[in-house]
């Protein structure tokens, strides 16, 4: 196996995570940049709580260094080393399976991560930065995650950063009834927030987005939602009780210097990455500002209920991982077998051409000779081919591959 992963997850401080967060455009740029540096296959999984680069290459330990160096261009190397995940071979595959199943998340069994892993794979496949090996590994990880969700119902009760944000806000404010809340952004996370707020008997939910048309579309989907022009977002802050931000903006969208003076308490929850709200806003009077990392306490309470299910999920992953590692082991000899088959075809072609030059055979006789020579050569390589595929020990298999390639000058 020659798979590896490098990156950071929710255990890394948000101040570091937001620096290595990828926009869609940046993700595509980095995929091709790493491919151009000689890495055979690359997939990037980037969410609000993680930034991870998965690679496949025959020289994985050498190519892992390229990815580590890439991260160090974003951050001071000393700062990143304490948080950087770096795994290869079975540990890297296990990590991906845990990520896809939501077992390596701030919220165990979270709903959104499976879709984000699938989206990462589809993007890489479309950009042709992943192929046979990572495609197979990601496909199996996604399939296993679906099995876990269906079998164990680990995500039966909806849990996501959006759900936790609403619950967190409710705990802070005691009740959301008759409150007015501003949602900035209309992506998946924001719409989930709006969905969970529908049961809280709010006076009004205001929605603001850079594209006002999108805000209007969302207002037609949910009850009690009022679209507000993006340029008026600051004006509304003095009229609401809370703000939840979840945009995909690479820049801060609420700056301290532009904040209006407030006389009433305003709760602000920033679940975007990079962050939407200037951290300095927390210093202002009447404002309580929270980000994703502040949600960890309430996540721990909810995760206690899911830990027992997670144990069963890990057993399923253990069994499924065995299947994919067996496939990888078999696939590792494919290149040698393809070269061996090409050598067989080359010998067959040369032999037949020699026979035809030295003899005067009819078309019918030539067909018979073709079949005889082809069958003989196929029989010659079939036994070593079958035996090579049966070898389980990695070192022994690699030794045999080397011997075959040297003996047949492949």
Written account of the structure:
The chain is an alpha/beta fold and 410 residues long. It folds into three domains: 3-157 and 306-331, Beta Polymerase, domain 2 (2-Layer Sandwich), CATH 3.30.460; 161-294, NAD(P)-binding Rossmann-like Domain (Rossmann fold, 3-Layer(aba) Sandwich); 334-407, no CATH class. 53% of the residues lie in helices and 13% in strands. It has a six-stranded parallel sheet with strand order 7-6-5-8-9-10, covered by helices on one side. A four-stranded antiparallel sheet has the order 2-3-1-4, sandwiched between helices. Strand 6, helix 10 and strand 7 (225-229) form a beta-alpha-beta unit. It is elongated, with a radius of gyration of 28 Å.
Attribute tags:
single chain, 410 residues, alpha/beta, Beta Polymerase, domain 2, Rossmann fold, 3 domains, 6-stranded parallel β-sheet, 4-stranded antiparallel β-sheet, 16 helices, elongated
Q: What's the short version?
A:
The protein is of the alpha/beta class and about 400 residues long.
